[in-house]
Amino acid sequence: MDQTVAASGAPGSLADPGAPGSGPGAGAGARARLTAPAALRWLRRVAGVVPFGAYVTLGLLLPMIAVAIGAFQNNSGGFTLSNINAATHGIYLHGFWQSIELSVITAILPGIFGLLIAYAIFTAKRGNLLRQIAVTASGVFANFGGVPLAFLFIATLGSSGLATQWLTDLGFNPYNNGFTLYSLTGVVVVYFYFQIPLMVLVILPALEGLRPAWREAAENLGARTWDYWRFVGGPVLLPSFLGCVLLLFGSALSAYATTEALTNGTIPLTSIQIGSFLNGNVIAGQENIGKALGLGMVVIIAVAMLIYVALQRRAAKWLR
Amino acid sequence: MASISGAQGAVPGIGSGRIRRSSRGSSSWRGTAWRWAVLIVAGVYFLIPLWAALRFSGIKAFGSVIGEDGFTSSLGLSVRLAVVTTLITIALMLPTTVYVHLRLPNLRRLLEGITILPIVIPPVVLIVGVLQIAPGSLKGTPYLLALEYVILAMPFAFRAIDAGLRALDLKTIVEAASSLGAGWFNTLWRVVLPNLRTALLSAVVLTVALVLGEYTMASLALFQTFPVWIYVNSQTSGQVSVAASLLALFVTWLFLMAITMLGTRQSRKTGGGSVTLFTVARQETRGN
Amino acid sequence: MTANITGNAAADGTRQVTGTRGTSVVLQDLSRSFGATRALDGLSIEMAPGELVALLGPSGCGKTTALRIVAGFETADTGSVLIDRKDITSVPAAKRDMGMVFQSYSLFPNMSALDNVAFGLRMRKVGTADRRKQAGELLDMVGLADQARQYPHQLSGGQQQRVALARALAIEPRVLLLDEPLSALDAKVRLQLREQIRTLQQRLGTTTLFVTHDQEEALSMADRVGVMSRGKLEQIAAPDELYDHPATAFVAEFVGVMNRLPAELQGGGMVTALDSTVPVMNPDADLSPGPVDVLVRPEGLAMQVIENGNGIVTTRTFLGSVTRVHVLLSGDVTVQIDKPSSEAAALAPGTSVSVSLPADPVLITPRR
After folding, report:
1. DSSP summary character for residue C280
2. Does C110 touch chain A (CB under 8 A)?
3. Complex prediction ipTM
4. Are strands C276-279 and C270-273 parallel, antiparallel or unpaired?
5. Do A214 and C92 touch, CB atoms closer than 8 A?
6. Which residues of A111-124 are buried (b: 16+ CB within 10 A; e: fewer)?
7. B28–A contact, CB cutoff 8 A
8. Which residues contact C356 (CB under 8 A, 6 or more apart)?
9. In chain B, where does DSSP find H-type helix?
């Protein structure tokens, strides 16, 4: 915060000479002393984001806190650890592991495929119809899930689905070889349908950050395609790639509708289990376990984000 | 569905593999072949289920979709929710993002971090918490959903607007407007907003797509929006449900395409490049 | 002009530099179209070993396209590129052994300056210790030894371009290609780098192709300058030749400032302007009598303060050692005349002067 400039901009104007980075002495490194006018000025400046902050608090923070608190409450409102206990054992623990396993697989694999597809789109001639179609399609498919998607795949890879029939005609019936759409494997295949487009969408802007001059400079210095990706393209893209994979992980973890429609709750996944608490499909008196499960999910995400941050720092050093 | 990072304005075209003669070397030929292989495999994976669904539901089902019980009411609800959500989202995110860009650039990173939260926090968990703390009056109306949808849409709206702002030199044009005597309202309305047209369009489109497709929170909060209706209806008539899903998919896609093309035509007029859903890329300048 | 290390003036006025290393580069009849636009139209240039040739021209003239074809990033529709008399048109960019410096932001952001410079050596499988040492020496050569461990985003624009130069030279290229490397820098840095590049280039004797739109840059650095317009090479010659004997009106007006005066062609290769009749300079022009325009440099016009002269001074601009004077002549023609500032004292705006053509040959061009 710049404390050396007294004026705070013409009244009614948007340009603010007091803003950091503008005005004489801005960013000169003068240590701010919290005098009353300075604090007031700071408050006034922050005032602009108050509506947003309030909304986020009400709509996001408070519900989360409610869930967190509820996780520790028993039916009469007293403090208890029994919910947490239940949530971390038995089928619920199993649910957590399954969810994590599913999310990791459907984050990394679609991450890689999505990157390949995004790169293929990106290096096609720019402004092409292909590119616009592909990006729009990704936007649509990334949001496409739930029951409709489940139906699509039942019609495709269900026991009498179209693709199943084709494969049978070719001599290989997947259902005779242990595959079923209504298992974890099937769910993974279905998840790709929205995870890959999501990846394409979020990695495309990062690809645009790859300057062609780098590629050309590398080529000019004798690098082949592999060398370029290994020494320049890869390292530069890595943080974004990891960020996107994290996004995919979160998205997979929170997915609910698709699996519900496909499996009707036969596979233990945390999101489904939470849903069943809300649907009332549980023994009375155990509702708060659902909240404990919710808390658990948030913890998982938080851990994932920490791993991401650590990885990002490491990645900068690894690929020297 | 949003941009995590990425610099703006880079001229694209890495290894533009248009081969004129094989003299370019085998590397770019291999590159093009590989690219087409990837796209074809992707195309197959994404198109086959659509085709299968089409065959399953049959063309007739499309006709009867509209006549089905609850179709109009649920679609109407979804559309109303989409409108309300979009309005609130834009009203919230636009001023905030502009403000942060102008006055609090240090907070931008924090803002970005906060907007990631709704993506990674499962809507399932969120709705549990919301139903907990929402006052009873609000719980009765579906507009509770709209309020929460704003939170869900927030990341995407932020990304779109943020990308649009980063492509501008916001500080400079605001100072220029100021020096010419424009007050804050005029500056926003006449200078900043027109330059953000495509970014805003993206934000709107993404929000609408989100609301029209959201199932989890709506069903758990017991409101019958369009996606919920599709599920409920599927118990009785699978074919019609599938037809409705395909229809919804197709319409959303058409909608997005139209917006993207409109946006591109608009931005080409003002010297920009083609518009994708998240960035307005600069036009490639051919060599000297 | 910068002095050369060794220089021989060849018969056609080109200055030949014989360096310690350097290969000949020949561009033969290069053509390239992008859709309907003809970016290059039969460009042919022969570069002697160790020579620095600048390609100069306005935006869109094809100079960058030509450079990129030589580098291997574009392919020509027709024509070929010969290095050391060998056709390299089908050789991929990575194998061409050329060093290229781009306009800006071409340093790899994830590597330090040292690693950037060492990159080409790494591609050539030079061992870690060796390549670090060589890279260090190169950074020293461009004066950035202290910045070896810094990352591109920590360096200024001028420093980045110096690192880029060191990186290009690290591989000891046969040819050095520079794509407007100084355009993105500020004036003072530009001047310093200009000298540094030229000195380095001459010391190493590397054949260099330099693309720029800044004529001052081209004239001060190059052995020969090729002026391009719309894909064609208008003229290629040593800087002074270009300035004194421009082959076409485009070159004349692009390089330096030219005054344009209405004139009348008489028969026999003479032209009349400003009441003087002088010979025509361009030998292959159409000499049939009629109206033409005559092109004269500011220093090529004679001016005297006199009562009732044929012109009136409109503006006078002090530029340091020289003062630029604009004179309005009859027929609504304004000319620009440069005078040493010591002589310009009497030329206040409004002064009546007489402007005339000395007896030297002048360039004619069709009446506009």
Report:
1. B
2. yes
3. 0.71
4. antiparallel
5. no
6. bebbbbbbbbbbbb
7. no
8. C274, C275, C276, C301, C302, C303, C304
9. 26-65, 71-103, 108-120, 123-133, 136-140, 143-166, 170-179, 184-186, 193-195, 197-213, 216-220, 226-234, 238-269
The number of C-alpha atoms within 13 Å of C331 and in the hemisphere containing its C-beta is: 9
Closest approach of chain A CAs to the CA of C97, in angstroms?
A: 7
Confirm or reject contact between A77 and chain B (CB < 8 A).
Answer: no
- What the block records as the tokens of A69 is 């608190």
- Hunting for tokens 């610099």 — which residue is that? B7
Q: Do C77 and C65 contact (CB within 8 A), yes or no? A: no
Nearest to B187 among A14, A135, A215 (CB): A14
Q: How confident is the model at residue C211 (pLDDT cuts 50, 70, 90)?
A: very high
**pLDDT by residue for chain B (288 residues), tens digit each?**
333 333 333 333 333 333 222 233 334 666 778 888 888 898 888 888 888 888 877 777 777 777 777 788 888 888 889 889 999 999 899 888 888 888 888 787 778 778 877 877 778 888 888 887 878 777 778 888 888 899 988 888 888 888 778 777 788 888 888 777 777 777 888 878 887 877 787 788 778 888 888 888 888 888 888 888 877 776 677 777 778 778 778 877 777 777 677 767 766 665 555 555 544 344 333 222
A-to-B residue pairs, Cβ atoms closer than 8 angstroms: 342
What does the pLDDT look like over B46-60, one tens digit per residue? 888 888 888 877 777
Q: Tell the residue number behind the tokens 């669904």, with chain if given.
A: B53
* Secondary structure letter of residue B275 according to DSSP: B
Q: Which two tokens stand for residue A41?
A: 């000025």
Q: Which two tokens stand for residue A231?
A: 């020494």
**Residues belonging to chain B:** 288
∠ CA B116-B118-B122 to the nearest 5 degrees? 125
Structure tokens at B238: 């699978």
Cβ–Cβ under 8 Å, residues C313 and C350:
yes
User: Across the strands, what pairs with C207?
Assistant: C175
pLDDT band at A21 (very low <50, low <70, confident <90, very high): very low
Q: What is the DSSP string of A191-257?
A: HHHHHHHHHHHHHHHHHHTS-HHHHHHHHHTT--HHHHIIIIIHHHHHHHHHHHHHHHHHHHHH--H
End-to-end Cα distance, chain B: 37
* Residue B191 in contact with partner chain A when CB distance is under 8 A: no
pTM of the complete model beyond 0.90: no
Distance CA A141, CA A110 (A): 13
In contact, A296 and A95? CB cutoff 8 Å: no
Put simply, the answer to whether C65 touches B287 (Cβ < 8 Å) is yes
